[in-house]
Amino acid sequence: MMNMDLSTVIEEMETGDQDSALTALQSYNKQMNQCFTFNRDEQKDREHLGELVLGFLDRELQPSCLLACLETVRILSRDKNCLDPFTNQFAMSTLARYASIAVDSATTPAHSQSVDGQEEDAGGDEEETGLCSKVLKESSPPSENPDQEVIVEALKSICNILLHNETGQMVAADLQLIKGVAERLKQCHDPTWNYEVRFFDLRLTFLLTALRVDVRAQLAQELHGVSLLGNHLEATLGLCCSGTLETARAGFEGIPTEELPPLSRQQTELAMEILKILFNITFDINRRKVDEEEAAVYRHLGAILRHCLMSHADGEERTEEFHSHTVNLLGNLPLPCLDVLLMPKVQQGSIEYMGVNMDAVNTLLKFMEKRLDRGHKLKETLLPSLNLLTESARIHRETRKFLRSKVLPPLRDVKNRPEVGNTLRNKIVRLMTLIDTDVKDCAAEFLFVLCKESVSRFIKYTGYGNAAGLLAARGLLRGGKDPGIYSEDEDSETEEYREAKAQINPITGVVEEEQPNPMEGMTEEQKEYEAMKLVHMFDKLSRNHLIQPMQLGMDGTMTEMTTEDLHKLTNKPLLQSEDPPNLDSEDEN
């Protein structure tokens, strides 16, 4: 087939003859199939070609010509500067009709026919989703065999338009495309639909929920999106759920999840799209209370996510990506629903702690450590799993104790600083010294929760210098303990720690060689002189706005020191300070 230039293709299209148009479009599509960058000089011509193709799509077409027209729209819609012909209501509703997701009957020409078995029943489903009109199905394929190639091409074109154009996003929302695609998502057990239709249904749903807040809310509330997509995820993974919220892959009941064969590439791709959509519609759930009915839906979803966490995909890289989306979504679930991670019975080969199955928690911990060791974009890659472990430990006693045994085992090394070494404790304490406040705060919060929010224990494992940031933010620099719902633990002091305890520098958290006293041999007058010099230096730096001196208030929080406060120190440099807080006074539980 000879390649035609764009002007020749347009000339053939302007004849209105289907055979001429088919030949021209097939040549153009073959030539441009892998093209993702476009010549700006031909922008007007491409827009004109788009208008001509849409005119053809409003006619009765031969199947081959119809498919060629939609392929051309897909190619043209890759150019974000050439989308004007495709972002109006007529163009979007035409593409929605061919994608079998059109909702408004007014947008469907008289020649349109529904796909047999795919037209929505006028009864129960309409009532459930609040649809006032039928979901109209794509007309061109034979009724007994829907042309899924046509559906896929139309879906791809709509996805391109949504990705690049805000007007197209608004029109898609106005046309209620989410309702049409949700109807097909309900058919997750129907073998009629092939992988590509399923994938691009999900990709379209992801784009709509990512780009439109109103569509996100509509899917979550009106269309019961969490339940709908939870069922879709369950079907995609081939799961059967028992009444005890334990999941198993159909045909592999009784086999531990980690021993199951890996998920296929197609299963993994579909599952990750579902996880991303669910993340979009649940990102604010853990900030509000949920009723019993909602909690049941989220706990069921949590059980499926546990299965995802314990499953493997085809290849290590794909498995990590799959687990990453799973962890992101787990972090959105209401905290009380996370108990499903501990639900499965302890089986042979399971990790047991206090009689509870800790396989999922251990997998989360390993996932977090892998991200931590990689050290790349910690805020994006590490925080979801670290936050999830923190909140799980805060609310579940068994989880906290298990994590503490792994991260903060009884302290034996008192010669190296807490941030020095390759244990998990050392790695997390190092995070507390980073410039990125989100990462350092999250790391500190994790260890603080594992210490039952006990200041003395927190300082014991991290050193006062590393702990100071969190303690200052909490008003705990004078010691004490935050109120919390924590149980008592056993005494964690080792013989090594007990022997060295008196020599440990609380600032660094380690035993240090005794340093000479710099004031040794000075008279009281010399000491006062040096103290005055120091105060004047602070005052000068403060006046020049190079530093802001701070002081510890009676409530344990830091407050700014004024010039007057510094003058008080100048006048009374040898005032005895208050006794420092006894950071070891709390029981080592």
Automatic annotation (TrEMBL):
GO terms for biological process: G protein-coupled receptor signaling pathway. It comes from the Eukaryota. Residues 108-130, 561-589 are annotated as: Disordered. InterPro entries: ARM-type_fold (IPR016024), Chaperone_Ric-8_A/B (IPR008376), Gua_nucleotide_exch_fac_Ric8 (IPR019318). Keywords: Chaperone, Cytoplasm, Guanine-nucleotide releasing factor. Residues 117-129 have a biased composition (Acidic residues). One of its GO terms (molecular function) is guanyl-nucleotide exchange factor activity. GO terms for cellular component: cell cortex; plasma membrane. It is found in: Cytoplasm, Cell cortex. Pfam families: Ric8. Chaperone that specifically binds and folds nascent G alpha proteins prior to G protein heterotrimer formation. Also acts as a guanine nucleotide exchange factor (GEF) for G alpha proteins by stimulating exchange of bound GDP for free GTP. Interacts with some GDP-bound G alpha proteins. Does not interact with G-alpha proteins when they are in complex with subunits beta and gamma. Belongs to the synembryn family. This is Synembryn. It comes from Haplochromis burtoni (Burton's mouthbrooder). The lineage of its organism: Eukaryota, Metazoa, Chordata, Craniata, Vertebrata.
